[in-house]
Design goal:
By secondary structure, the protein is mostly helical. The protein has six helices and no strands. Helix 2 packs antiparallel against helix 3 and helix 3 runs antiparallel to helix 5 (115-158).
């Protein structure tokens, strides 16, 4: 139940940046897809091009890999910049909400807490949330789940009996 509450609260801060998140997830999916295609291409390079000495096919596959690598780098840079930008925007929204909440608290609260604790909450704790949720949480989990999914797809395509 707490996990549902957490995602509802997080959605409040993410909702303004829905399209940027969608673009970030598309970048992550492309990243995982290229990793899987690269691993699978080694099979085709060896089995279909090198062993039968079909050098035309070898050059074609390597050309596709070079074009894919260039796209991979460009989309990777876009994904990294989007992830960093979203992390900063969401952290600023959390800090703004926390600051608004602090202004509505009673003077008794400020008498019980030191100024250092309050500043720590505003600065370092929100940064930890950004690192844990946005940077490491959403992006890494999405990337690894996509890697797992694409690897399973290629495993079934190569030999479905062994995949089961």
């Amino acid at each position: 139940m707490e996990l549902i509450w957490f995602f509802k609260t997080l959605n409040k801060y993410i909702a303004d940046y829905k399209w940027q998140f969608i673009l970030l997830f598309i970048c992550l999916i492309f990243d995982a897809a290229f990793d899987s295609v690269f691993r699978a291409s080694l099979k085709f390079i060896i089995d279909a091009a090198i062993v039968p000495q079909n050098y035309g096919l070898l050059i074609f596959i390597l050309s596709l890999l070079v074009v894919g690598a260039i796209l991979y780098i460009c989309i990777g840079v876009l994904g990294l910049s989007l992830g960093a930008r979203l992390g900063i925007l969401i952290t600023n929204n959390i800090r703004y909400s926390l600051f608004e909440h602090l202004q509505n608290l009673s003077m008794e609260f400020f008498g019980r807490r030191s100024a250092g604790d309050i500043v720590k909450c505003l600065m370092s704790d929100t940064q930890k949330v950004e690192n844990g949720v946005i940077t490491m949480g959403l992006t890494v989990v999405t990337l690894e789940l996509c890697n797992l999914l694409f690897s399973l797809i290629f495993l079934f395509l190569l030999n479905w009996q062994l995949a089961l």
